[in-house]
What we know:
Elements: H1 3-27, H2 54-71, E1 85-94, E2 99-111, E3 117-123, E4 130-138, E5 140-151, E6 154-155, E7 158-182, E8 185-198, E9 201-206, H3 214-226, H4 228-255
Helix pairs in contact: 1-4
Pfam families: JHBP (PF06585)
InterPro entries: Haemolymph_juvenile_hormone-bd, To_sf
Protein name: Protein takeout
Amino acid sequence: MSxxxxxxxxxxxxxVLWCLASVAIVLIPTAxxxxxxxxxxxxxxxxxxxxxxxxxxxxxxxxxxxxxxVTGIEGLEHVGTIxxxxxxxxxxxxxxxxxxxNASLSKVVVTGFASTKVVRxxxxxKDFGWETHIRLPKMRLEGNYHMQGRILVIxxxxxxxxxxxxxxxxxxxxxTTNLYQKNGHVFYNVTATKVDYTISGLRxxxxxxxxxxxVLEDSTNQYLNDNWRPxxxxxxPIIAKTIEDxxxxxxxxxxxxxxxxxxxxxxxxx
Length: 270
């Protein structure tokens, strides 16, 4: 691989990472509430470990929760609707090693999460953690960006509009949790998540890259679109960690408010 090719790889990887990280920040809630729902919401299907179709029931229950998050759940604090998701501004600073970037994204709109499918949800009857397979057909992020910095020897300076469309995302999430009791209910204390994922495609465009140098802007966008697969693979460990942080923050917020025994009735009590 030539020096020029390596430089373009590095630049493209940071751009994709930056935009995926912006989605992560949109999703992270700011706080968690202490009071549970007094009664079980109708959208939650209650399952039992001792029923023969527990996995199917649990999958349907989680899908019901996700469907309600699309429109918003009355009484659930600090978790708004997830389609569309909006945020006013995000800042990203990276100054260590070969990467030095001062970037921001503003007026962000993220769509596509309404089509998310919960394929399978398995809850352990031993440690009460769960493994969830989620499929997202397509997501689109649009916003205004401003970026100054460098990747190795390449300056990355520009501002304008951008959009990104990852497609065919399959996420497998493994969650670690323990149980605690409060107000007569059993709750999940979600302590960790581990994520693996694949995507089947990625399209993107960043306008006004390199302060209006059209040739560099067009060639960089074309390169990113033509080579999305190796770029995504190179970024996978970092993106997976970002998704883990997103999901952990969301689940900690939700499950400190909604009792776990609404989802699984025969969870043990001390």
